Amino acid sequence: MTFSAIIGAWVAAGLTLFILSFLYRDNPLFKVAENLYVGVSAGYWFTVYAYDVWVPKVWLPLSAGLLWPILPALLGITMLFRLHPKYAWVSRMSFAYMIGYGAGMSIPVTMTSQFMKQVSSTIQPLVAMSGASVDFSGAALFSIFSALVLMIGLLCTLLYFFFSAEHTGVLKVTSKMAVYFLMIYFGAAYGITVMGRFALLYGRFAELYTYSSGIYFYATPILLLFVIGFMIKFKGKKHDEPPLTEQV
Amino acid sequence: MKDIIAKLLKIDRRIIFLLTSLAILIPIVFYIQMPGLQVTESTKSVYNALDSLPEGSTLLMSFDFDPSTKPELYPMADVMCRHAFKKNIKVLAMAFTAPGVAIAEDLITKDAVEMHKEYGKDYVFLGYQPNYVSALTEFGNDFYSVYPTDSRGTNLQSLPVMQGIRTIKDIGLVMDYTAASYLDAWVAYSSDRYGFKLGAGTTAVNEPSCLPYVQSHQIVGLLGALRGGAEYESLLHYNGLATKGMASVSMGHFLILALIILANLMVLAQKFMKEEEK
């Protein structure tokens, strides 16, 4: 095991435990980790933009005598004029270019790939019903049933958010059905989010467990004892903050 | 009884945090594994898309995520990289997020060392590409105008791994591992336009918004979070990171279900007792 890997393990385990210590109560160790995270992120992204964008896309071509990066670089620099109220208008040119470019690029492809193709694939199983040779296999029937459920759910949900007419009569029925479709969606989304969060927690715990071994000089147990000791001492000093259960 | 229920309903949330931690930690410490994982059609489609590629084909892996979602996406990328190397399929790794480069290098180097693969011949790191819209649009015209060199500065066309590749259409399968909306861009700006095989791996939170692409056949299949990785591992008969993690995730789910049921039962019991008192 290299020295840098051991140092990395101690830093990773320590910062993870510092962040998790917030679950007990707010404390200086959490603040240290939080501020470090913000600072390191800012520094990291600055170097990324400097060395992965500015140097290869602007500096190196200009150094090689190519002049084409001048215009985009100028457009980029003029964006900074936004910071000065008197000269903020200069930045409008860059923003106009970006908005025009963005809209021109994204609107046609988004309409095709996220609207037309989705509508087409939704109605395809229903089109199969009107064909000369109707397929009565289990898979085909299930596909038609799914398409019908999807279509009814889609129409009901769209009508639920139609506020130009009072939800009475037919609209009342469709709105009630839409509530059930929405509840199923929210339930599924909640369940899948919980699964995702547990997977992330598993990732941290699996790493903490790895760092608890002898090859990492028992980073996790030693740092855990340190955090517990600090929390006991910190709790003894500060009592003015209510526990988390009372902070809701 | 009434007092116990009232106390339990006001339980300190830190006890629930502790129970959750134990539910996740116990399977890790005792190597518990969950039996009977069912493989979804979507995962099978991704597996078949890679498995059906002939030897010498190319898999392009786009690591469009950062360490915050690594536990969900790393295992699926890992097992797919192993699958590709096992089948002697060349691997190209790229990223539209800067931290993705380090994750890709760590993952592929580890697998390459284990499976005796050579840099430049069997795999290559293309590096970070900041403007993904331009890159995705240009991939279909000339791959080398987006990546003239690899991440180490070597002329990309001079590497044996790039033989036979001019545009993205020459790549057997493209996999996008993402926790954000990069898949939308991959579909809209590249795969729909140039018609190459695109698959995806995404986080659980992102999964519902990506699934419609499977239904419309705009992507070959979708690996959903840790479970998707575990399903792929079971198809490859490989006991990897995702399979190990599924026990922890399942234990966590059981705990949440138990707590929801218990809390509802206690609320009902409390209500029942109040009515009886009246």
Provide keyphrases for this structure:
heterodimer; A: 248 residues; mainly alpha; 75% helix; 0% strand; extended; B: 278 residues; alpha/beta; Rossmann fold; 2 domains; 6-stranded parallel sheet; 11 helices; 55% helix; elongated
Topology of helices and strands:
The complex is a heterodimer of chains A (248) and B (278).
Chain A: H1 3-20, H2 28-63, H3 70-78, H4 91-129, H5 138-160, H6 170-210, H7 219-237
Helix pairs in contact in A: 1-2, 1-7, 4-5, 5-6
Chain B: H1 2-9, H2 13-29, H3 41-51, E1 58-64, H4 70-86, E2 90-95, H5 98-114, E3 123-128, H6 132-139, H7 143-146, E4 173-178, H8 182-194, E5 198-202, H9 207-215, E6 222-224, H10 225-235, H11 241-277
Parallel strand pairs in B: 1-2, 1-4, 2-3, 4-5, 5-6
Helix pairs in contact in B: 1-11, 2-11, 4-5, 4-10, 6-8, 10-11
Could you explain the architecture of this structure?
The complex is a heterodimer of chains A (248) and B (278). In chain A, 75% of the residues lie in helices and 0% in strands. By secondary structure, chain A is mainly alpha-helical. The longest helix of chain A has 41 residues. The two termini of chain A are 45 Å apart. Chain B folds into 2 domains: 61 residues; 198 residues, Rossmann fold (3-Layer(aba) Sandwich). In chain B, helix 8 links the parallel strand 4 and strand 5. The longest helix of chain B has 37 residues. Chain B is elongated. Chains A and B meet through helix 2, helix 4 and helix 6 of A and helix 2, helix 4, helix 8, helix 9 and helix 10 of B.
